[in-house]
Fold this sequence. Notes:
This protein is an alpha/beta fold. 55% of the residues lie in helices and 15% in strands. Strand 1 (4-9), helix 1 (14-28) and strand 2 (32-39) form a beta-alpha-beta unit.
Amino acid sequence: MIRSALIIVPHPDDEINVAGGLFETLQANGIYTSVVICTNGDHVPEYTAKRYREAQKAQRIFKYQELIFLGYGDGYRGTHIYDSKEGDAVNCDETWCRVKVKGKYGKKYIWCMVNKEAKVAVYFYDDGSRGRKVLRDFLGETKIDALQSDGFNVYMYLDNELVNVDHLCCFAHARAKFQYAFEQGKDADAEYFIRLIGWLYDQEEQYRLRHLTPEQIRKERQGEKTAKVISQIRQRLDKLLADGNGMRGDLMQKALNYLNSFWNQLILYLKDGRYNIDNSLAERTLRPMTVERKNSLTFGSHAGAKVSVIYHTFIETCKMCGVSTLEYFKEFFKAAIKRVQFQMNLRNVEREQLRILSKAAIKRVQFQMNLRNVEREQLRILSKAIMQGRTDYENMLPMTIGIKK
Length: 405
């Protein structure tokens, strides 16, 4: 019995032309289907991103399970999209706060981005905006391999604009939705998804306890057992969606829609051992900001919110590096004080040097003035002697002129 199918095509949209009718047969028989597109469609460079989006749309229409872009250039005109220097995988999340602007308190947003490999957590705030421009400006020209987030639509621009960046979503959010459907909606089908997703989490915990390297984790994730569970989740999802709503509750329907909408982003963690199954890293890092919101309630201005994000950036980065925040700030301020003292001493030296130079300059001016007075006196005496008819100029040397006998 065929359990899985692999379809390999050279160009984007070839999978539709070659195997369009085959997809329906494969899905009707519950066969896990993977499509590999070898080139990135850069024969016409400006169409690369468009072809990528079209392939994802085709996957949603034909409902096959896995889409893989190898990213090779079309002929000799392109290069492999993964040939660039390896970037990092980052996690991102945001939370709300209240900030006083123009005399009124409004709902604003603080962002947090975490780089697990670099052990850095950065909070950022752009006048409270939650728009995509904030994230785009913060990333700038930074090269990253992947960004993991929740399903907020601002993050989805990565799928359209940063085609070389893997965008992962959070399996914890998907599991929570099924948990709500089971506990509050009493939906029996939800328990099936909770159990299988729980198995995936158990595997992740085993990888951690065994201290596996990212490459070892990747091989484990792409093994037969995990592939079988992923296939079972997808098949049950497709079956329930095909059955229609029926007697299903709203919570269960929302859980199924979420899992289906973000399926590619949810299972993308299988691709790389550095990737996480969920976005809990960013959510845990952002939690102190939530606690602060409950304690301080509000910020009096944008400046106050910016001070807070700087403060939390230091603290959370220290925690990730295993450094005592208190000890870090002690050393930081010691170094800052030493720097200030050095600057003050340097200024004192500069002042003393300036005083000495000024004193020397004054003496030089006084010397020049005295010299000029002497020269004027010599000239006066010489002029007087000439007027008196004296011709013994050789006796009127500078050292004798003006000496009274």
